[in-house]
Amino acid sequence: MCEKTHLICVTALLSLLLLSPVSVMAQGGPALVELTPVATREVASGQTFVGTVMPTRRAVIGSAVDGRVINVMFEEGDRVEKDQPLAQLLTQTISLELAAASAELDLRREQLREMENGSLPEELNQARSRLERAKVMAQFSQRELERVSVLIQKNATSQSEFDSAKSSAQATQEEFDEAKAALQLAVDGPRPERIAQAKAQVAMQEAVVNKLQDQIKKYTIYSRFAGYVTVKHTDIGAWATQGGAIAEVIALDEVDVVAKVVDNQVAYINVGDSVRVEIPALPDQAITGRVAYIVPQADVRSRTFPVKIRVENIIRESSEPLLKAGMLTRVTLATGSKTTGTLVPKDALVLGGPQPVVWVVEASTIKNGDKGKLAEARMVPVRLGVSENGLIQVIGSIPDNSYVVSKGNERIIPDRAGGPSPVVLVPGPLPSLTQATGQKGATNVAD
Prior knowledge:
This protein has helices at 2-18, 21-27, 92-117, 121-153, 159-188, 192-217, and strands spanning 31-37, 39-62, 67-72, 79-80, 85-89, 220-222, 227-232, 239-240, 245-262, 274-278, 287-294, 304-312, 328-345, 357-362, 367-369, 372-388, 391-396, 402-407, 421-425.
C-alpha cells in the first residue's frame, strides 16, 4: 500500500514538472503580439548627465497652536492624502470657551429679535388700559377743580381745598400725558439706534465664535498635499509648541530628476524637451520625462546649471512609489548636432537583462495563416537614447522599413538556437511603414 502511494506521488510530481510555465507556454504556440513601425527621424546628438530624484514638494508641517498631542495618525513611510489629519491636540479648554461664546451669541441674537419684533399685543393692550384710566382720572380731577373754583369765588370753601384740587388736577394730567407717551413708545417699538447697537453686539459675538472655531481647527494638524511622511517629529503625550514641527512630508506623485549641466551645453536644452531617464536601481523600467525648469543660476564653483526633468511616478497597489527621493539617475539631454536616428515605442523595449533588446519583425516574414497573420520576430540588442512622445532612440541592427513588437513581447519565447521566434499578429490591418519615416520632433540620441 505504501509503495503504491509513493508511486502515485512521484507520478504527480513529474506531471507538475512537465506542466511548468515554460512547457505550457511552449505548448500554447506562438505569442499574440502587436506591431509598431520603426521610425526614422533626425535626432540631436546627446550627452549623459548624472541626476538625482527629488520630490516636487517638501514641507515640514508644524502646529499653529500650543497644546498636548493626544493622537498621532501616521508613521514614517505612510502615504497621506491632501487635507488628511496627521495629529490631534487636546481641545478641552478651548471647547469650553467656544461653548460659552456660543451661548452668549444665542443671548445676543434673542435680544435683537425681541427688539426687531417690537411690543407684544398684550403689552399694547396694557398701555392702552393705563392711558384710559389716566384719562378718566384726569377728567375727574379737572371737573373737581372747576367745582372748587366756583365755590372759592363764593367763599364757600377754603383756600387749602382749592389748592388740593388744583394739585390733583395737575398730577392726573401729567399721569395722562405719561400714559399717552408710554403707549406711543409701545406702538413705535425700540429706537433704530438701539436696534443697530444690538446688531453690532451680535456681529461682535459672531466674530468671537468664528475666531474660536477657527482656532479649534488648528488643534488638528493636516497634510496640505498628497505625499509620504519622511520624518515623524512628535508622538502621543508630547507638548506641541506653536510653529513646532509635527511631520515632514514629500510629494512623489510626480518627481523632479535634477541634473547638473555644464554651461557650454545648457544653451541647447529647452523647456519641454523629452528626456529618457535611466535608474540603475530599476534596470527593467523605461522611464521618460520632460524638462520642466532650467535654473538660470549656475554654481560658481562647478559652472553647472540645475536642470529639472519632471517625471510621472508609478504608485503601486501598496501605495509605495516606484521612484523614491534620492535615487541615482542618468539622463541623456540633446546638446549636439542632428543625425538620422531610429526610434521605437518605449513599450517595445525589453529591459532587465545585460542589455536592452527589441523584437524586430521584417515585413517580408509576415504571412497569412489559418489563424491569422504569422510572422517571425528576431531579438536585437540595442543601445538607448532619449524618447520623444513615447518614442525612444535605439542603436542596433534594425533594418529600415521594419516593425518592432510593442505589445506582447514579454510572451515571446527566444529560440534556443538564436534564430527567429514565431509570433501571431493581432487581428486588423498593419500600420503603414511609410508613415513612420521622415517625421520630425525627436531631439535625443543614444549614449
